[in-house]
Design goal:
9 helices, alpha/beta
């Protein structure tokens, strides 16, 4: 069993099962301690309902839930994680981007952990480098946990998004990660992440790799490439430059 810690920063309840669920479940099955940091509980009037749903979702997923003091620097100092997973700072949703930028700043300030995985929900994931297999059994397990978010699924059924995105990733993933003309992935569903390695204070994109479902994603070390993403990660996003098309996005 591993004693390693992975911390996931979730902008809203349900993002813990929409951003990088296959990765979190694979780490959990490999014995990692998975801590999901709830950075918000949505709109004030919804907080009791969404907290109850989040607690049930984390129970089903077997994640620890941290609600108090979600400040990334505080969390990193207290938990000393081996891996951080967070939203891409170009994910289009303003609060997702805010969380992603705060997490990267905290990692840079602490100079740890060395490895960061980024996901996207609302925008296309730029520069994916890590592919994870999602079997039908794993997909069903993720959907079961996500289904605890009854209120949000009633508003907009994100299970449909998971179904479509994991299928599309399996088709597009090989060529997006390894280059156009690459052979197709040997499975029907996939999750894509951007894997970063902190080297001398710079966030370097890691070499592309595939993780099969029964493998510990950390068994193969992340190998930094020569591609430095630090400046790009800090650039103003499309949302920052041109705005979001809806109001109150921070608490939705």
């Amino acid at each position: 069993m591993s004693n390693r810690v992975a911390v996931h920063f979730s902008p809203h309840p349900d993002d813990e099962l929409l951003g990088a669920p296959a990765a979190l479940f694979a780490l959990r099955d490999a014995g990692w301690r998975i801590v999901n940091v709830a950075c918000s509980l949505g709109r004030a009037e919804q907080e009791p309902r969404r907290l109850a749903e989040l607690e049930e979702a984390c129970r089903r997923a077997r994640f620890e839930l941290r609600r108090r003091h979600p400040d990334p620097a505080t969390v990193l100092h207290e938990l000393q994680p081996d891996l951080v997973i967070a939203p891409n700072p170009h994910d289009r949703h303003p609060f997702h981007e805010q969380v992603g930028r705060a997490v990267l700043a905290a990692v840079s300030g602490a100079e740890a952990p060395e490895t960061v995985w980024l996901w996207s929900v609302w925008g296309e994931l730029e520069l994916p480098s890590l592919v994870l297999e999602v079997s039908e059994q794993r997909f069903a397990e993720i959907v079961h946990a996500l289904s605890a978010h009854v209120g949000e699924l009633g508003r907009n059924d994100h299970r449909r998004l998971l179904r479509a995105r994991t299928s599309a990733n399996a088709v597009l993933g090989a060529e997006r990660v390894f280059g156009f003309g690459a052979l197709a992935l040997p499975f029907a569903r996939a999750e894509l992440l951007t894997e970063l390695r902190l080297v001398d204070g710079r966030f370097m994109l890691c070499d592309p790799r595939v993780v099969r479902e029964l493998d510990d994603p950390s068994e193969t070390p992340a190998v930094p490439s020569s591609t430095d993403l630090t400046a790009w990660l800090a650039e103003p996003s499309l949302t920052t430059r041109f705005g979001a098309r809806h109001a109150n996005v921070r608490n939705t």
